[in-house]
Design goal:
With 438 residues, the protein is of the alpha/beta class. The protein is built from 13 helices and 17 strands. It binds 4'-deoxy-4'-aminopyridoxal-5'-phosphate.
Length: 438
Amino acid sequence: MLSDKELQGLRQKHLGPSLKLAYEKPIHIVRGEGQYLFDADGHQYLDCVNNVQHVGHCHPKVVAAARKQYGALSTNTRYLDDTIVRYAKGLSETLPDGLDVCFFTNSGSEANDLALRLARNFTGSKETIVFASAYHGHLSSLIEISPYKHSGPGGSGPPDFVHVVPAPDQFRGQFRGLGSSEQYVREFKQVVDQIKGARHQLSAFFVEAMMGCGGQIPVPEQFLRSAFALAKNSGAVCIADEVQVGFGRVGSHYWAFEKCGVVPDIVTMGKSMGNGHPISAVVTTGEIADAFNNGMEYFNTFGGNPVSCSVGLAVLDVIRDEGLQDNAFEVGSHLLDQLTHLKSKHDLIGDVRGAGLFIGVELVNDGVTLQPATNEANVLVNIMKEKGFLLSSDGPDQNVIKIKPPMVFNEENAEVLVNTIDEVLPLVIQISSTVDYN
Ligand code: PMP
């Protein structure tokens, strides 16, 4: 086996330098099982962050489904095949009535790009509203609608058809506190009115009901209901990006948008959908799909192939058979309670938020100014790795610790994670004052 040093040398030589490694001292993982990962030296890590391996690393039923179908047949959507229709039906059954037409793609970005095409075709317009700090993917069309990228390092801002509204972050956003929803709605309405005033048609409101890269921010229910109504009344479609948060992760519901009592016109999904196998989808209404059927064929070489669909079906079965949504609710609620208790003990923790197994812990250096504790977040993630826990930090200020483990994460895992964070926080403050990891 190549040494870590050799691997890093080869990466440097042969991979694009904008591909980054996690952690100050990168890790070389060679095996995964359930919620655990193992490195080349045999060290075990509790995976608290890889939401893609939704039903657990290398789940035997998912691996068996892939192996069986790959050994039998892998073609494309131009042939009759029962895996694709069974999977499309299975996905539709998890969604509200009317969302029952599926397009299969290969990544979250590809799904979101297709969602944009569907919306633009349906409304005859490109005008799109997104949240500040939202991330929707890495394709050119998605960098345009992702302030997380186009307004960050190396970015060149949004094009004129992209309208950025404040993210309804009730902790450090433009308006703060539980009662701030109305103020965010007013800002949203102002943008909708501006677009109308300029005699433009709004095409889409593109939104994650629980923001991921934007800093693990649950969008307030009342805000989302009002924003959906405003967007829909102006003839736009609402697109729910469930790439990070779908498939029962939020615990109380299968889809994060359902928590807010809204029904989107288009839903995109990916990441966890194939438990690590690259598969994603766009699900929409018959009306939107029919309008897209304008003579130009939609063909996707790999999207919807029988192997991917078999894997996707196995993931749906495991979520149901193992009660993983309920597990996310129970373990996640317990974890949220315990982390909230930690907040009362450590000034560095400014906010604890989330739902199910999608939790954010925001670190601040000052409880009044909310100065982001970016270096501390980085130090914490690195110390936790040394102690055998994989976490990451994100958000516009890179000061939010993300917790989004495989859904088989259990109460014992939650307990040991919280106890270890409790233990290392004083050390984090001490080290951060001498080492700058940024
Ligand atoms: N949407 C959201 C909300 C995401 O978090 C991501 C990936 N982080 C994407 C889309 C893009 O997915 P992919 O990397 O599979 O293209």
